[in-house]
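Field log, afternoon session.

UNIT: design team B
ACTIVITY: writing a sequence onto a fixed backbone
BACKBONE:
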């Protein structure tokens, strides 16, 4: 595949002497998280700061991996780098107007029998994940009913857009949804799209993600979960079809909690 450099990023990479795969691969950068070692290889994330032409700086998340592949129908034996799958899904979200991170650089190669991949994305400046303490229901920000419901409505809206295009996140935990307040509105971004898939039936997508997020999000009461579902369905009173879907989700949550 052709090396990808995001619009406007070529000069910034050159300014920071990161204009080639090798220069990025060999960059000495502390791990943001401990590298994940599995699938016969490793995968790690660093946060770096790049100088801009204006004299400022911009935060970048740098992901590098080696022999960390996922088997696919097209490549059932050796598989493909998981970051390649994530990169393609980022581009799919962008093409459909679904909010996610901005890609800066991507490329993968095979060197001496090893697959190596690099994915760089712009830091979500000013955003916090939904599992941040500031979004806890008992916190000062979310104790305000109007503020809490405004945030829930914004997240429900973007989830609905994702599912309308038959995308299923498959790992929609609160830590994978980043938000920031803009006046009385909320900006929402979905991250970690490695496990994203397409569902022929939209219902399968919404069942998976609407089961995962409410069950995993900290501090939500049962009334919050039902209210969020109503916002997602855009119904003040659930229709018969929505009631069936909610019962299925609710029963799955109860069954999981008993395990």
């Amino acid at each position: 595949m052709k090396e990808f450099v995001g619009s406007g990023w070529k000069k910034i990479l050159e300014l920071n002497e990161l204009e080639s795969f090798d220069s990025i691969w060999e960059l000495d950068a502390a791990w943001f998280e401990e590298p994940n070692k599995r699938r016969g290889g490793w995968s790690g994330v660093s946060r770096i700061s790049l100088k801009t032409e204006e004299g400022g700086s911009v935060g970048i998340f740098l992901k590098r991996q080696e022999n960390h592949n996922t088997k696919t129908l097209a490549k059932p034996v050796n598989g493909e780098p998981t970051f390649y799958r994530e990169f393609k899904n980022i581009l799919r979200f962008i093409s459909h107007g679904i909010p996610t991170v901005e890609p800066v650089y991507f490329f993968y190669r095979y060197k001496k029998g090893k697959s190596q991949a690099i994915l760089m994305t712009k830091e979500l400046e000013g955003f916090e994940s939904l599992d941040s303490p500031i979004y806890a229901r008992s916190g000062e920000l979310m104790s305000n009913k109007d503020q809490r419901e405004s945030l829930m409505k914004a997240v429900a809206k973007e989830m609905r857009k994702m599912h309308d295009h038959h995308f299923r996140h498959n790992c929609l935990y609160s830590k994978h949804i980043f938000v920031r307040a803009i006046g009385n509105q909320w900006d929402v971004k979905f991250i970690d799209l490695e496990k994203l898939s397409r569902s022929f039936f939209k219902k399968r997508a919404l069942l998976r993600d609407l089961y995962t997020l409410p069950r995993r999000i900290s501090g939500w009461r049962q009334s919050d979960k039902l209210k969020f579902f109503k916002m997602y369905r855009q119904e003040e009173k659930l229709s018969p079809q929505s009631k069936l879907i909610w019962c299925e989700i609710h029963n799955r949550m109860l069954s999981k909690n008993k395990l």
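LOG NOTE: The CA atoms of residues 83 and 128 lie 23 Å apart.
NEXT ACTIVITY: expression trials, pending approval
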